[in-house]
Amino acid sequence: MSAANKYSDFCLFLQEMKEKLLGKSPEELKTVAQAAGLPAFAAKQIAEWMYVKRAKSFAEMTNISKSGREKLAELYELGVSAPVGIAQSSDGTKKYLFQVEISPLASLGRNDNDKYIESVMIPDEDRKTLCVSSQAGCKMGCKFCMTGRQGFHGNLEPADILNQFISIDESAVLTNAVFMGMGEPLDNTDNVLRAIEVLTAPWGFAWSPKRVTLSTIGVLPSLRRYLDESRCHLAISIHNPFQDERLELMPVQKAWPVAEVIRMLKDYDWTAQRRVSFEYTMFAGWNDDRRHADALARLLRDIECRVNLIRFHRIPDFPYECASPRAMEAFRDRLNSLGVTCTIRASRGEDILAACGMLAGKHNK
Q1: Handedness of CA 270, 272, 277, 278 (dihedral sign)
Q2: Domains along the chain?
Q3: In the chain, where do the E strands start and end?
Q4: Which tens digit of pLDDT belongs to each residue from 68-83?
Q5: Could you give the residue numbers annotated as active site?
Q6: Fewest C-beta atoms under 10 Å: which of 198, 206, 275, 304?
Q7: CB 97 within 8 A of CB 82
Q8: What are phi and psi of 99, to 5 degrees?
Q9: Residue 122: which H helix or E strand, with range?
């Protein structure tokens, strides 16, 4: 396709694209209400319908005039869309597939705007946790991750992130959220922080920040901002304490060395109560021996934290296997003996490709 045709398609896309309301604050919705010929107080009503009542269409907003609802639908999109696929694991985990429209501005100028992302609902006794995606694909290129292998296709807007909470069967009974799905959340910082604001604001979902955890490989330019602007929990994907070995499987080690991430965390003023954890995927013969456990304990010295050991889930054309249960238990026990709290995370949803590192946004047509 010629450059002129690409530009023409881009302009047409922008003309046809309606602004999504999901993710807007009540203050921002005042402009929306005005554009639809509604009084200013309608902004609060729209916000309540979206975030408290979880409306899926403008037609449901019955305390707004019919003409006002019709004008809203003419000018805007609500931003709510049903999943296009659902898979359920034998352990009760459910994986939802969503189709998202990525604008050329958010997808490095590509014209193939329709992409698919996945989110995972994990039940555990009285808890129901949603594993949320923040990007279609990922730039980070971790070699053991299916999402990273597909490359980057675009950032999700706040509406696309929040839609994952609203459009699943368990929307009303979710207890927790982890930004550990497709993408690197701190590579989409503005949109992720806006989604978190909606989740935790009194006018939004009104969740406690303690119900939300964000996982990152350690994007230093955005990590401090996340800590400053939210009170949610933090998880760092570390996977190896030795910098040269970490670089073998995680190219981001070159841009943001884990030692610098740890140094920033040690220097940060932790006045807000929040949990800091480190995610450590176990590979047989690569990072699962006492040498690695001891180095990890030294690296994390003076940080009040927890280490979660994660079983590696086999993916095609990758040379490593998961560490044995005995090796994982020995690693855990060694860290605990050295004063670092460590647990082995239960693996969930592997039979439907919903476990850690397996999300690929595949749509089987």
Answers
A1: negative
A2: 3-77 (1.10.150.530), 85-352 (3.20.20.70)
A3: 19-20, 76-77, 85-88, 94-101, 114-124, 127-131, 135-137, 152-155, 176-179, 212-216, 233-237, 276-282, 306-311, 341-344
A4: 999 999 999 999 999 9
A5: 118, 356
A6: 304
A7: no
A8: -95, 130
A9: strand 114-124
